[in-house]
Design brief:
alpha+beta, 7-stranded mixed beta sheet, 7 strands
Amino acid sequence: MHLRTATAEDGPHITALLQRCYPVLMASAYEPVALAAALPLMTRANPALLATGTYYVVEQQGKIVGAGGWTRDKPGGGGIDGQTGHIRHFATDPDHVRQRIGRALIERCLADAREAGLSQMECFASLNAVAFYAASGFEPLGPLDIRIGGTVPLPSLHMRRRL
């Protein structure tokens, strides 16, 4: 397993990962109609995230099998508070879950945020990922609907962990 900072050239490979991952792993938590509306909007690599230097990929045998990162900016342009980082666009290939890929990514994000002087990390966890974030020390703050593309509501859980 090789974890590295993502580059713009990784964009198509991250998009392919998201397209493999989200339909499979989210199917147990969401109605098909909700996924049909949300997936086309959320299964594309975000060039702005790739340019942050805090978005990472995990490769195995030359293939990207995991991706995720963090920013100081809240998802959706909600601003910066100076002490809080935000977990962003995590995914693990369905054929590679339970192989510590997500754990490696989250540990890298938490360590980097700590080093950057932040005191806490938040995430808007999809319902299928709540257990992963809880196992990583995140605690629930409350439910929220993420507006995918500004319009499609996707039930999620707002979570936080101290660094």
